[in-house]
């Protein structure tokens, strides 16, 4: 998919995720909106995946370590045909498979997550298996920035570098906000890039809401032999919805009817503009 | 009397099986020595992963390996493996249904004088509360060998607890079928049943002899699998012998005794006693000294049995 098509797709995914959250009256709006561009780049362009063969042994693996922002992932998996789009309407309903965190009973989900600080270690195991036993797949692990306060993240970081896993890509959705406010007020993270570099990772810092940069970065991995890559994706929490952008409250605020309609109309305007200009301004 | 520790038996068995099975992997957390896994690490470096002192990481990495079709055996001290990484066990192993075998080494009070930080006497309670996780305590070298062979072919998360030191044999040979979830009747009896697991099976067998001298016919069940529990054997024992004593190297809260009691009170209420380590930091000392202190002994089992039978 070309960049402008990916941008259009991301806008549509944002509409879908807002709709399932609005309908279910629960969800993690801000973080799902911030990571939508990252997931769109991966699922529509970068990763080797096949919805008709979700268990293919050569498929690329994706682990959503920040499992709470699953609404963008559910919307994408449905759109890519891993399950019927109508099932999205069951999100967070009693007995659904589409719960508020990744659930590997659903095709396309590799691991159950939700408890923060777990995804990277699991991804190290997947990447290590590929490296040791000659498999070609890559493993992508998306973490939150607030999640970096979990000590287990750094155990995984250490092991990824120790085992020279250049088939492992860690991504941080660096939106700088968590439930209680700015990440650096809750628990200082800086210098975050230097920390990852000092743990032996090749670190790339990009605009995580810029589709062109995301695609170029992911397609250029590995840039350094024998080193895992950490993509510091600087994003905006609540991206794409003017009144939700950079507002910590929207971490798990649910749009009311008026907010939902306004958000959808803003995204529709973005879509119109993209179609008109063939690019994002 | 055998002089091989169960951890050594696991290593030898895996070494043997790994020759024909490239999927078997062993992981250690700076514990290849204490887990007796150094021979495996030397023989199969490609199937061995050193994680360093990081118990959360070792479980997560194992789950990732299992997700990719491997059969990881995590070997790490039971005290840390069962507590420090319990969330990874819950989410990455049990909830995600990954085929990880967690081998808690030096469990119970086998770290002796190292104190409460290194004693592992809450691990059974913690592990058996997790849906989908099996819990096994093998009794001696024969059973450990059979269990390890069974685990290689068993798909699913399992927590195994073994001790540190050589254990006296309770089986004459390994010539029997080890079935996960199926208790072994070690001695027949009609007056009372003692149910034990792991290293306390030896104590129960000695109690059987002591009770025989007192004219009491005591059944001994080796409940090597605490989850899934062999409820049928427990109900049968309650019906046929009318009284049950459990004995374990674990807190009396939430372990073997509690698991048996849950079955007994719901299906076949009979008088019961639970012997184990009381709800306190276990006293430091060699395993036999600690056992003696808490009445995990043939003498005390005999005394409790006679009391329970009103004699």
TrEMBL record, chain A:
UniProt cofactor(s): thiamine diphosphate
Pfam family, one: Transketolase_N
Origin: domain of life: Bacteria
Limits of the Transketolase N-terminal domain: 12-252
Alphabetically ordered keywords of this record: Thiamine pyrophosphate
Keyword Zinc-finger: no
Gene3D superfamilies from the UniProt entry: 3.40.50.970
CDD domains: TPP_TK
Family per record: Belongs to the transketolase family.
Protein name, per record: Transketolase
Species assigned in the record: Paenibacillus aurantius
From TrEMBL, chain B:
Pfam families per UniProt: Transket_pyr, Transketolase_C
Signal peptide (UniProt feature, chain positions): none
Keyword Membrane: no
Residue stretches in coiled coil: none
Cofactor(s) listed: thiamine diphosphate
Keywords annotated in UniProt: Thiamine pyrophosphate
Source organism superkingdom: Bacteria
SMART domains: Transket_pyr
Record domain Transketolase-like pyrimidine-binding: where: 4-170
InterPro entries referenced in this protein's UniProt entry, alphabetically: PDH/Transketolase, THDP-binding, Transketo_C/PFOR_II, Transketolase-like_Pyr-bd, Transketolase_C
Keyword Aminoacyl-tRNA synthetase: no
Similarity comment: Belongs to the transketolase family.
Protein name: Transketolase C-terminal domain-containing protein
């Amino acid at each position: 998919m070309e960049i402008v098509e990916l941008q259009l797709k991301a806008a549509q995914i944002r509409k879908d995720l807002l709709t399932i959250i609005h309908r279910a009256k629960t969800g993690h709006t801000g973080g799902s909106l911030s990571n939508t561009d990252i997931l769109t780049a991966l699922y529509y362009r970068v990763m080797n995946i096949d919805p008709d063969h979700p268990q293919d042994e050569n498929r690329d693996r994706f682990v959503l370590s920040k499992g709470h922002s699953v609404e963008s992932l559910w919307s994408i998996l449905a759109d890519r045909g891993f399950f019927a789009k109508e099932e999205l309407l069951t999100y967070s309903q009693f007995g659904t498979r589409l719960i508020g965190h990744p659930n590997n009973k659903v095709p396309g989900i590799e691991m159950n997550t939700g408890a923060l600080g777990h995804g990277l270690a699991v991804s190290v195991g997947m990447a290590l298996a590929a490296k040791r036993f000659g498999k070609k797949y890559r493993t992508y692990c998306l973490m939150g920035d607030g999640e970096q306060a979990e000590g287990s993240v750094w155990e995984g970081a250490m092991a990824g570098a120790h085992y020279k896993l250049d088939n492992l890509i860690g991504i941080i959705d660096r939106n700088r906000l968590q439930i209680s406010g700015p990440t650096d007020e809750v628990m200082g993270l800086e210098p975050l890039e230097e920390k990852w570099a000092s743990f032996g990772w090749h670190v790339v810092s990009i605009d995580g809401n810029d589709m062109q940069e995301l695609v170029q970065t992911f397609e250029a991995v590995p840039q350094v032999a024998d080193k895992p890559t950490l993509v510091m994706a600087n994003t905006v929490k609540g991206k794409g919805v003017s009144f939700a952008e950079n507002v910590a409250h929207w971490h798990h605020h649910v749009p009311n009817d008026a907010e939902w309609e306004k958000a959808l109309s803003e995204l529709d305007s973005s879509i119109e503009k993209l179609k008109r200009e063939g690019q994002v301004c | 009397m055998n002089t091989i520790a169960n951890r050594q038996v696991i290593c030898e068995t895996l070494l043997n099986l790994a020759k024909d099975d490239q999927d078997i992997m062993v992981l250690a957390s700076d514990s290849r020595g204490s887990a007796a896994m150094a021979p495996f690490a030397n023989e199969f470096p490609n199937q061995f992963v050193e994680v360093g002192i990081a118990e959360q990481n070792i479980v997560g990495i194992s789950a990732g390996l299992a997700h990719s079709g491997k059969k990881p055996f995590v070997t790490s001290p039971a005290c840390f493996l069962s507590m420090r990484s319990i969330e990874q066990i819950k989410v990455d192993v049990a909830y995600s249904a990954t085929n990880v075998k967690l081998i808690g080494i030096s469990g119970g009070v086998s770290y002796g004088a190292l104190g409460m930080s290194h004693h592992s006497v809450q691990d059974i309670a913690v592990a058996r509360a997790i849906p989908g996780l099996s819990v096994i305590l093998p009794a001696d070298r024969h059973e450990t060998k059979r269990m390890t062979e069974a685990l290689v072919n068993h798909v699913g998360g399992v927590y195994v607890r073994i001790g540190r030191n050589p254990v006296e044999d309770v089986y004459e040979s390994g010539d029997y079928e080890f079935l996960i979830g199926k208790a072994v009747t070690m001695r027949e009896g009609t007056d009372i049943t003692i149910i034990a697991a792991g290293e306390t099976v030896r104590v129960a067998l000695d109690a059987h002899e002591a009770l025989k001298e007192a004219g009491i016919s005591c059944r001994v069940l080796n409940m090597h699998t605490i989850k899934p529990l062999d409820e049928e054997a427990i109900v049968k024992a309650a019906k046929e012998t009318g009284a049950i004593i459990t004995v374990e190297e674990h807190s009396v809260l939430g372990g073997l005794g509690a698991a048996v009691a849950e079955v007994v009170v719901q299906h076949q209420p009979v008088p019961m006693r639970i012997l184990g380590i009381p709800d306190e930091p276990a006293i430091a000392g060699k395993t036999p000294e600690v056992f003696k202190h808490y009445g995990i002994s043939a003498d005390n089992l005999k005394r409790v049995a006679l009391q329970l039978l009103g004699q």
